[in-house]
Automatic annotation (TrEMBL):
The species this protein was found in: Saccharothrix espanaensis (strain ATCC 51144 / DSM 44229 / JCM 9112 / NBRC 15066 / NRRL 15764)
Residue ranges occupied by any Mannosylglycerate hydrolase MGH1-like glycoside hydrolase domain in the UniProt entry: 436-659, 700-870
Gene Ontology molecular function, alphabetical: Glc3Man9GlcNAc2 oligosaccharide glucosidase activity
GO biological process terms, semicolon-separated: oligosaccharide metabolic process
Protein's UniProt name: Mannosylglycerate hydrolase MGH1-like glycoside hydrolase domain-containing protein
Length: 894
C-alpha cells in the first residue's frame, strides 16, 4: 500500500525501502551488542559444560570473550567487530559499571535473573533513531546483598529485586538517557544525558567506550585492529582501523581524559599466571578509574599525544551533580577520517530530524495509552536484535592458541556434538537482551509477526535464516536454542510465515520458506512419530514444566508419551503447509499435489487423535471433553496398555489451533486439488467428520463442532483457564493439586499462577498456570478462523456459565481485550503487569515505563520471568494494530 503521510514518515520508509538486505548500509550499525555474553554456552570451554560457572560475572571485566561482546545501551557493526557502549561509576562501586548484573541459574531462587533497571523507549527499524534509559543507583551497587537475599529465599517466595535492597529509595539514582541518531548510515550522533533524581548532590563518572572484539588471540587470525586516541589540533578523538571495516573516527566533545588499553585477558589476576600475554588488559580502564592504578592503561595528555590499543574510553567526571540537574556528553562516530564540524549545527539538527522521523513512522490513530504500548513494544523488539556468532566445530575442537579442548568435548554425547555444521554470524532477534541472549526457534517465529508490521524485510529474512544450511540440520531439524540445539520447539515457523505473508504479500519469500519447511516437516514425521501411528512425541516443546514429568527425557519401563500438543502442533503444521501450497499453486499448479499431500496428512493425524493410535486410545478423552497426553507401553503378550495423563493444561488446548478454511477460490482456481480431495473423501468417508462445508467454503478442524464447544467451555471458564488477563497455561481447577500416575509412578503437581516452584528446566519459567502471550495469540487466531467460516453462527458462552453468548470472533476480541489490559492502567491507575514490583509505585519516574515480561501471573497479571523480554510479548503490538476486531461483546448476546 503506498504511503501518503508527511515527509517525516516518508523518510524512514524510504530508508527501509533501500534496506531490504541484512547488509544494506542503513543496517550496518544497530543495537547488535549483547546485554550479556558471560555465562553463555559459546563462552563455556569447561570439561563439565557448566556455562554459568565457567565464565562468571566476576570474570567479565577482565577476560576477553571468544564469540561476542556485551555492554550497557551499546551498539556495534553488523559483523560485531567494533563496539560502542556506556560505562559508569558513582564513586562508590567496587568496579566500573560496564555491563548489567544478574544472578546465575543456581544463584537465583527462580533461576537466572538480571538485577538492573533499563527501558528501551524508542526506535526505528533502520536504527536511524534509538533511545534507551538506564537507571543507575547513587549508592554502592549491592552485588553481595542481592546474592544473599536470593540465597535465603525459597521457590515459594518472590524474586528479590534491586529496589528491595533500598538503594533506590528517595529516588537516589541517575536516569541515563542514551540517544543514537544517524545523520547517514555511517555517521552516528550519540547524546548521553544523566539526571540526578535524588535529594542530594551526587558524583557521576560517564565513560563512553569504544573497543574491538578480540579476534586475534585464538590462533586463527593474527591480524590485529587498532584504536588510536588523539588530542591533536584541539580535538579529542579515537581513530579505529580494521581490516574489514576500514577506518572510523569517534569524535568526543569537551575535554575528557582519553584512556586506552587492550581487550586482552588479565591472566595474572584471574588465573594467577606469572605474566600476561599483553602489557595492558581488558580491565585496564576499570583499574585506572576505580582502583587508581596509574599503570593500568595509557592516558592521553593535553597536547598532541596519541596512544594505541584495542579498547578506549572518554572519561567525563561530574562531581557533584546537583539534585534535579542533568549533565550531557556528546560523541559522533563517523566512517573515515571524521567530521569537520562534528558538534556543530548538524548534530542537533540530526537529532531533531530523526526524532521527527520516528514520530512520523509510528503515527497511529490509536489513543495515546495504546499507542505508547505499541511504540515501546516495537522499540524493545527492535533493540533485541543481536549479532550472533558461533562456529560449533571450532568451539568443540578448541582454538590453536588456547589450551586443548577437554576430552569430554570429543564425546558423541557432548553438548551440540551433532550440530558441527552450525556456522552462524548473523543479526538475529533474541528472546531477551540479558536472560536469553541467544536465539530460540519458536520465540523468533513469534517475533517476526509484529516485526513484519514495521520491517517486513527483516521479518522474512529471520524466518529464512533459521532454515539456512548453516543453521538447519542436514536432516531437516531446526535448531532449538544454544543450550541444546537438538531440543524441540513447537513447529510454528509455517504459521509465522503465513502471518508475515498476510502483512506483506511476497510469493517469492513464501516459496523459499515453504521448500525449506518441507525438509523440516519430514524430520518431524520420521523422528517424532515412532511407530507411524500419527501420534507424535515432541518432547520438550518449549513449555518447560507444563507436565508432571520432564517430557524431554525417556520414560521408565518401556513407557512412551504420546503428546496431545505434539500431535496437535503437527496437525496445525500440516494445515499451514497446505495453505502455503495452495497460495503458491495459484501461480504454479505443480504445488496442487503437495497441497493434497498435507490435507491427507492432516486427516490422518485427526483420525488418530480421536479413535486409533497405539492401544486404540487417542488424545481426545470423551469423558472429560478434553485432550490429554497419553502414556502407553507394549505388554509381553503384544497388547498395548495406555493411560491418559489427566492434567488440564495448555497441551489440551493446542488442538484448537489445528483449523483452516478452504475459501471458494481454492475450488474455482484449483480444480485438480478439489477433485483429489473429493476422491479422498469418497474412498475414506469416515474422514468427513473433520470437514464442514457451507456456502462453497470448507472448514478443516482437528476438533469437530461438538468437541470444540466442549474444549472452549473449559477454556472460557474463569474457574479454569480464563483469567482476567488471558488464557492460563494450566487450569485453575487444579489449585489444590492433583496426583498423576505416570509410568507406574505417582507425581504431584498443581496450579501455580506465579513463579515456578519446581527446578525442572532450570526453574526459570513456569507453564503451570501463568498467562503466556504466544499461545494466547495463537488461540486468538484460531477463534478468528472459526469466525471467518461460521460468519457469526457459532456461539460460545463467555464466560462459561454466565448465560452470555458471543460469536467466536467476539470471543477473540474479548481475549485480546484481556491480554492488552495487562499494559493499560486499571481503575486504580495501575498497570496489572506491574504487579507489586517497584514499577507500580505512584512515582511518575517508575509509572512512565511500560515493562514487557516473559509471562504473567495467572491470577493478578503481574509480569514475571525475564522482565526485559519484549520478545514474543511484543505480540501485544500486533494485537493492538490488528483491524479484524468484530465489535463489542455486548452487541452479540443471543
Amino acid at each position: 500500500m503506498p504511503h501518503t503521510g508527511p515527509v517525516d514518515e516518508q523518510r524512514e520508509r524510504a530508508r527501509l525501502a533501500a534496506s531490504d538486505a541484512p547488509t544494506s548500509p542503513w543496517r550496518l550499525w544497530g543495537p547488535y551488542l549483547a546485554g550479556r555474553q558471560w555465562g553463555t554456552v559459546r563462552e563455556d570451554y569447561s570439561a563439565g559444560g557448566d556455562a554459568w560457572t565457567s565464565f562468571p560475572f566476576e570474570h567479565a571485566r577482565s577476560r576477553a570473550y571468544r564469540w561476542g561482546e556485551d555492554g550497557i545501551a551499546g551498539i556495534c557493526d553488523v559483523h560485531g567487530f567494533l563496539n560502542f557502549g556506556l560505562a559508569l561509576w558513582n564513586g562508590r562501586d567496587p568496579i566500573l559499571k560496564e555491563r548489567y548484573f544478574g544472578l546465575t541459574n543456581v544463584e537465583g531462587n527462580h533461576g537466572e535473573d538480571v538485577k538492573e533497571h533499563w527501558w528501551v523507549t524508542d526506535g526505528t527499524p533502520t536504527h536511524s533513531w534509538m533511545q534507551v534509559v538506564y537507571r543507575y543507583p547513587q549508592a554502592e551497587f549491592p552485588y553481595r546483598e542481592l546474592r544473599e537475599m536470593a540465597s535465603n529465599a525459597g521457590r515459594q517466595e518472590r524474586e528479590p529485586e534491586l529496589a528491595d535492597t533500598g538503594v533506590l529509595d528517595e529516588n537516589r539514582f541517575f536516569d541515563v538517557l542514551v540517544t543514537y541518531a544517524k545523520a547517514a548510515p555511517t555517521d552516528i550522533c550519540v547524546e548521553i544525558t544523566a539526571t540526578n533524581h535524588g535529594p542530594d548532590p551526587a558524583p557521576l563518572h560517564l565513560l563512553p567506550q569504544l573497543w574491538f572484539r578480540n579476534t586475534w588471540a585464538w590462533g586463527r587470525d593474527d591480524r590485529r585492529p587498532a584504536l588510536v586516541a588523539s588530542t591533536r589540533d584541539g580535538w579529542r578523538r579515537v581513530g579505529a582501523e580494521h581490516g574489514a571495516l576500514g577506518r572510523y573516527t569517534l569524535h568526543v566533545e569537551g575535554t575528557p581524559t582519553l584512556l586506552v588499553t587492550d581487550n586482552e585477558t588479565n591472566e595474572v589476576e584471574l588465573f594467577d599466571a606469572a605474566d600476561n600475554p599483553a602489557q595492558r588488559t581488558k580491565d585496564g580502564i576499570d583499574r585506572y578509574v576505580v582502583r587508581g592504578d596509574s599503570k593500568a592503561c595509557l592516558v592521553t595528555g593535553p597536547d598532541d599525544d596519541t596512544e594505541t590499543g584495542t579498547k578506549a574510553a572518554a572519561w567525563y567526571s561530574f562531581d557533584p551533580v546537583e539534585p534535579g540537574e542533568s549533565v550531557t556528553v556528546r560523541l559522533r562516530l563517523v566512517a573515515g577520517d571524521g567530521h569537520l564540524d562534528a558538534f556543530g549545527p548538524s548534530f542537533q539538527s540530526t537529532l531533531d530530524a530523526r526524532r521527527a522521523d520516528a514520530d512520523g513512522f509510528h503515527r497511529t490513530d490509536l489513543d495515546p495509552l495504546r499507542a505508547k504500548v505499541v511504540r515501546r513494544a516495537l522499540a524493545g523488539l527492535m533493540w533485541t536484535k543481536q549479532h550472533y556468532r558461533f562456529r560449533t566445530r571450532e568451539w568443540l575442537d578448541g582454538d590453536p592458541a588456547q589450551p586443548a579442548a577437554p576430552r569430554s568435548r570429543q564425546s558423541p554425547h557432548a553438548r551440540n556434538a551433532h550440530w558441527r555444521h552450525v556456522d552462524v554470524a548473523d543479526v538475529i532477534s533474541m528472546p531477551d537482551e540479558w536472560e536469553y541472549p541467544w536465539f530460540a526457534a519458536w520465540d523468533l517465529a513469534f517475533h517476526t509477526v509484529p516485526l513484519a508490521r514495521v520491517d517486513p524485510a527483516f521479518a522474512k529474512e529471520q524466518l529464512l535464516l533459521l532454515c539456512r544450511e548453516w543453521l538447519m540440520h542436514p536432516n531437516g531439524q531446526l535448531p532449538a536454542y544454544e543450550w541444546e540445539f537438538g531440543d524441540v520447539n513447537p513447529p510454528v515457523h509455517a504459521w509465522a510465515a503465513l502471518q508475515v505473508f498476510a502483512i506483506d504479500p511476497d510469493r517469492k519469500f513464501l516459496a523459499k520458506v515453504f521448500h525449506k519447511l518441507l525438509l523440516n516437516f519430514s524430520w518431524w514425521v520420521n523422528r517424532k512419530d515412532a511407530d507411524g501411528s500419527h501420534l507424535f512425541e515432541g518432547g520438550f516443546l518449549g513449555m518447560d514444566n507444563i507436565g508432571p514429568v520432564n517430557r524431554s527425557e525417556p520414560m521408565l519401563g518401556q513407557w512412551r508419551l504420546e503428546q496431545s500438543d505434539a500431535t496437535s502442533w503437527m496437525a496445525a503444521y500440516s494445515l499451514h503447509l497446505m495453505r502455503m501450497a495452495l497460495e503458491l499453486a495459484r501461480h504454479d499448479d505443480s504445488y496442487e499435489d503437495v497441497a493434497t499431500k498435507f490435507v491427507e496428512h492432516f486427516l490422518s493425524i485427526a483420525e488418530a487423535s480421536t479413535r486409533f493410535g497405539s492401544g486404540g486410545r487417542g488424545i481426545w478423552d470423551e469423558e472429560d471433553g478434553f485432550c490429554y497426553d497419553v502414556a502407553s507401553r507394549r505388554l509381553p503378550d503384544g497388547a498395548v496398555e495406555s493411560k491418559p495423563l489427566r492434567v488440564r493444561s495448555m497441551v489440551g488446548l493446542i488442538p484448537v489451533l489445528a483449523c483452516a478454511v478452504l475459501e471458494p477460490w481454492v475450488f474455482a482456481e484449483l480444480p485438480g486439488f478439489a477433485r483429489r480431495l473429493e476422491h479422498l473423501l469418497a474412498r475414506r468417508p469416515e474422514l468427513g467428520s473433520f470437514l464442514t462445508s457451507r456456502d462453497g467454503r470448507v472448514l478443516l478442524s482437528l476438533l469437530d463442532e461438538d468437541k470444540l464447544r466442549r474444549v472452549l467451555g473449559r477454556m472460557l471458564d474463569e474457574g479454569e483457564f480464563l483469567s482476567p488477563h488471558g488464557i492460563r497455561s494450566l487450569s485453575a481447577a487444579h489449585r489444590e493439586g492433583l496426583e498423576v500416575q505416570v509410568a507406574d509412578q505417582e507425581h504431584r503437581m498443581g496450579y501455580e499462577p506465579g513463579e515456578s516452584r519446581t527446578p525442572m528446566f532450570g526453574g526459570n519459567s513456569n507453564w503451570r498456570g501463568p498467562v503466556w502471550f504466544p499461545t494466547n495469540a495463537l488461540l486468538v487466531e484460531a477463534l478468528r478462523t472459526v469466525e471467518s467460516f461460521h460468519g457469526g453462527l457459532f456461539h460460545v458462552e463467555l464466560p462459561t456459565r454466565s448465560q452470555r453468548y458471543v460469536t467466536a470472533g467476539q470471543a477473540a476480541d474479548e481475549l485480546v481485550r484481556r491480554l492488552v489490559s495487562l499494559f493499560l492502567p486499571d481503575h486504580d491507575g495501575r498497570r496489572p503487569a506491574d504487579g507489586k514490583r517497584v514499577e507500580s509505585t505512584d512515582s511518575a519516574l517508575w509509572r512512565d515505563h511500560v515493562t514487557f515480561s516473559e509471562y504473567f501471573d495467572g491470577d493478578t497479571g503481574e509480569g514475571l520471568g525475564a522482565t526485559h523480554q519484549t520478545g514474543w510479548t511484543a505480540l501485544v503490538a500486533d494485537l493492538l494494530t490488528d483491524r479484524r476486531q468484530t465489535g463489542t461483546i455486548g452487541a452479540s448476546i443471543v
